[in-house]
């Protein structure tokens, strides 16, 4: 008879937001940064390149995003030069990121709009960013946080959505709901850094399947909501 997976039983309270983020902030210092943070560091936070890298990163592993971004920016470091490339050339430069064909179309069109409507600059409001093709709230929030140094945004991707629910901070079904809920429960001073902390933790420890609870500093207190099975520690 097949064995049904059991949720890890928990009666624990939600983790406190600020102390948990403080602990994670210390813990991630020794871990490799997510691709977008690395790109922002390497490229001095160039807003255009942060925007384009974030668009490339959707559904794509970090090393692939990083390599594709660097290949593309060697040839097209700004909106005008990207707008001049053919979509076929962009496809070749960004392959093998996921959905590279669609992304090539969106990148070219975004570059064209930036040149035509925004004077070659990346807009600095959510409203304007959302008018660009292929740009959703996650990309817009991350661009505002990383490139524009905004402290007023929370960027929620799948890691943030999953871990905020595991911690008991939110009870939500979609990243959009999680973003809205986090504005209510997280102190404002943490808004801009929640993404960096939870994405880094999610990539290294609190993984989507088989989270590494046995080597996690939050293991004794984390309510692990929705965790079906913990990873084995070698
Ligand atoms: S790895 Fe386990 S203990 Fe650590 S944060 Fe994730 S679910 Fe909680």
**Overall geometry:** elongated
Task: Specify the CATH homologous superfamily of the largest domain.
Answer: Helix-hairpin-Helix base-excision DNA repair enzymes (C-terminal)
Poorly predicted spans: 1-5
What portion of residues belong to β-strands? Answer: under 5%
Oligomer: single chain
First-residue to last-residue Cα separation = 29 Å
Q: Architecture of the largest domain, according to CATH?
A: Orthogonal Bundle
Rg over CA atoms: 19 Å
The mean pLDDT is 92
Describe this structure in words.
There is one protein chain. With 234 residues, the protein is mainly alpha-helical. The protein has 2 domains: 1-32 and 151-234, Helix-hairpin-Helix base-excision DNA repair enzymes (C-terminal) (Endonuclease Iii, domain 2); 46-146, Endonuclease III, domain 1 (Orthogonal Bundle), CATH 1.10.340. Helix content is 53%, strand content 0%. The chain has 12 helices and no strands. The chain has helices at 17-27, 35-42, 47-57, 62-75, 79-84, 87-94, 100-117, 126-129, 137-146, 158-166, 175-185, 191-204. Helix 10 (158-166) packs across helix 11 (175-185). The longest helix is centred in the middle third of the chain and has 18 residues, at 100-117. It is elongated, with a radius of gyration of 19 Å. The protein starts with 16 loop residues before the first helix and ends in a 30-residue tail after the last helix. The relative contact order is 0.15. Residues 1-5 have low confidence and may be disordered. Bound molecules: iron/sulfur cluster. Iron/sulfur cluster binds next to loops.
């Amino acid at each position: 008879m097949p064995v049904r997976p059991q949720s890890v039983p928990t009666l624990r309270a939600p983790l406190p937001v600020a102390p948990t983020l403080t602990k994670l902030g210390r813990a991630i210092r020794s871990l490799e940064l997510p691709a977008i943070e690395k790109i922002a560091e390497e490229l001095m936070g160039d807003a255009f390149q942060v925007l384009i890298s974030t668009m490339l990163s959707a559904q794509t592993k970090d090393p692939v995003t990083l390599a594709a971004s660097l290949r593309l920016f060697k040839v097209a470091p700004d909106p005008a030069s990207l707008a001049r490339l053919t979509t076929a050339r962009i496809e070749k430069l960004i392959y093998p990121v996921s959905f590279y064909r669609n992304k090539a179309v969106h990148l070219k069109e975004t570059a064209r709009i930036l040149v035509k409507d925004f004077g070659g600059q990346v807009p600095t409001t959510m409203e304007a960013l959302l008018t660009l093709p292929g740009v959703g709230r996650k990309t817009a929030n991350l661009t505002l946080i990383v490139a524009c140094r905004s402290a007023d945004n929370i960027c929620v991707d799948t890691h943030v959505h999953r871990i905020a629910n595991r911690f008991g901070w939110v009870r939500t079904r979609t990243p959009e709901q999680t973003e809205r809920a986090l504005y209510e429960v997280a102190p404002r001073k943490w808004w801009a850094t929640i993404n960096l902390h939870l994405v880094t933790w999610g990539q290294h420890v609190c993984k989507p399947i088989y989270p590494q609870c046995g080597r996690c500093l939050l293991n004794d207190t984390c309510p692990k909501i929705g965790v079906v099975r913990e990873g084995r520690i070698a």
